[in-house]
């Protein structure tokens, strides 16, 4: 109440009741105000505020409420900017919000930490993001349903980047079970379904991946979120591609490409070109694949994307040239792939690269190096608990070589994969 604020500010200023009252009110009147039994006359407020070294709005408690509302709006906007990869705008809002931090409640401090986590994730500063989210007291954040939902979803994203895919799935499911205010956070809910969909697809469960991506698609369509809808179409296309539904994959990649008319994004364009090139590779239209691969690589080099984004297109171009028996050109790309492998954090991409290096050695007659690199791919997949990928590769190599040990290992890995699924 205003009386409590006046008394607190008077004591902080070192003023006596008499000094504060001098010339404007009686000391008794000031005491009654401080005891909340009398109101402050409107015409006295400016002078009283000035003597206490504050503003009228602050004295009335309006300034604090205004600043809290402003900080909330800044952090909500920063979260949206982070999702859209407008990181400079997100950081600017965070700085502006921190200027109001003296007014923060526990809820606002928690929201600030979560927004900073999301920015770190987009910058691939996974250690910094983990350190920050682990500094948040889970029991405290549980009291704020909406923030607890975001907290669990961000934990899932961090587990995904740390390649703890099964933990990621559990976190995303836990988030979905929280009673979040969907009207306030539809975008965040859509992101959670999106994350869950790509994680399921990543471990090889394409049907569950598609199911959750379709839920995300519906939400993003309803709220008119073009950027995330584009990314959802790209990932649905990836699922159709993995099912060998190449025509459906092409259709949805081109659907994503159409959306870029409303959301010009060179990085997203490069992903679409890469994926279309990959489809054409499997349709055995190698020249068309190289055309789209070159367009993707040019864009990726221009926007300076992460190592994993570059290497998968270089690997695509290597495979195309192997199919066309352009071994000299394939060798150039393979050398670049090999130089990139130690820099790539994604086990899925690193494993695929070893497979491609193996195919190159097979094509030029170096069978032992082919087997060695293929087994390296299997080990990478196995270490990351990508059991489906490891099992598939072991089966294909075992079948080709008529190696019973590899076929038994493949069966063991497939079993391990299904056991993991049942646990979730």
Automatic annotation (TrEMBL):
<protein>
    <submittedName>
        <fullName>Helix-turn-helix domain-containing protein</fullName>
    </submittedName>
</protein>
<dbReference type="InterPro" id="IPR001387">
    <property type="entry name" value="Cro/C1-type_HTH"/>
</dbReference>
<dbReference type="GO" id="GO:0003677">
    <property type="term" value="F:DNA binding"/>
</dbReference>
<dbReference type="Pfam" id="PF13424">
    <property type="entry name" value="TPR_12"/>
</dbReference>
<feature type="repeat" description="TPR">
    <location>
        <begin position="270"/>
        <end position="303"/>
    </location>
</feature>
<dbReference type="Pfam" id="PF00515">
    <property type="entry name" value="TPR_1"/>
</dbReference>
<dbReference type="Pfam" id="PF01381">
    <property type="entry name" value="HTH_3"/>
</dbReference>
<feature type="domain" description="HTH cro/C1-type">
    <location>
        <begin position="6"/>
        <end position="59"/>
    </location>
</feature>
<keyword id="KW-0802">TPR repeat</keyword>
<dbReference type="InterPro" id="IPR011990">
    <property type="entry name" value="TPR-like_helical_dom_sf"/>
</dbReference>
<feature type="repeat" description="TPR">
    <location>
        <begin position="230"/>
        <end position="263"/>
    </location>
</feature>
<dbReference type="InterPro" id="IPR019734">
    <property type="entry name" value="TPR_rpt"/>
</dbReference>
<dbReference type="InterPro" id="IPR010982">
    <property type="entry name" value="Lambda_DNA-bd_dom_sf"/>
</dbReference>
């Amino acid at each position: 109440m205003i009386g409590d604020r006046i008394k607190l500010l008077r004591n902080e200023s070192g003023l006596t009741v008499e000094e504060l009252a001098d010339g404007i009110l009686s000391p008794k009147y000031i005491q009654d105000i401080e005891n909340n039994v009398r109101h402050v006359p409107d015409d006295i407020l400016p002078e009283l505020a000035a003597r206490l070294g504050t503003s009228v709005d602050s004295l009335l408690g309006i300034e604090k409420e205004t600043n809290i509302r402003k900080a909330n709006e800044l952090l909500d906007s920063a979260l949206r900017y982070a999702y859209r990869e407008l990181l400079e705008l997100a950081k600017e809002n965070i700085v502006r919000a921190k200027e109001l931090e003296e007014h923060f409640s526990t809820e606002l401090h928690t929201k600030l930490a979560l927004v900073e986590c999301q920015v770190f994730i987009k910058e691939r500063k996974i250690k910094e993001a983990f350190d920050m989210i682990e500094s948040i007291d889970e029991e405290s954040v549980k009291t704020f349903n909406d923030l607890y939902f975001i907290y669990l979803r961000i934990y899932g994203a961090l587990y995904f980047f740390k390649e703890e895919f099964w933990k990621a799935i559990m976190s995303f499911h836990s988030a979905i079970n929280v009673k979040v205010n969907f009207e306030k956070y539809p975008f965040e809910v859509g992101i959670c379904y999106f994350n869950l969909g790509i994680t399921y697809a990543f471990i090889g469960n394409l049907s569950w991946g598609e199911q959750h991506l379709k839920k995300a698609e519906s939400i993003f369509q309803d709220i008119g979120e073009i950027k995330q809808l584009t990314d959802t179409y790209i990932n649905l296309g990836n699922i159709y591609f993995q099912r060998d539904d190449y025509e459906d994959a092409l259709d949805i990649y081109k659907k994503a490409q159409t959306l870029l008319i409303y959301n010009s994004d060179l990085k997203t364009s490069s992903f679409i070109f890469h994926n279309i090139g990959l489809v054409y590779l499997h349709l055995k239209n190698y020249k068309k694949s190289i055309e789209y691969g070159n367009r993707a690589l040019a864009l990726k080099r221009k926007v300076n994307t992460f190592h994993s984004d570059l290497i998968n297109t270089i690997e695509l171009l290597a495979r195309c040239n192997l199919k066309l028996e352009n071994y000299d050109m394939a060798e150039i790309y393979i050398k670049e792939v090999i130089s990139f492998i130690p820099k790539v954090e994604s086990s899925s991409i690193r494993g695929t690269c070893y497979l491609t290096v193996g195919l190159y050695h097979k094509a030029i007659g170096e069978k032992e190096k082919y087997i060695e690199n293929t087994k390296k791919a299997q080990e990478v997949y196995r270490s990351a608990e990508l059991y489906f990928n490891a099992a598939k590769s072991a089966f294909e190599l075992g079948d080709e070589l008529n190696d019973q040990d590899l076929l038994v290992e493949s069966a063991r890995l497939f079993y391990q994969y299904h056991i993991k699924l049942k646990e979730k």
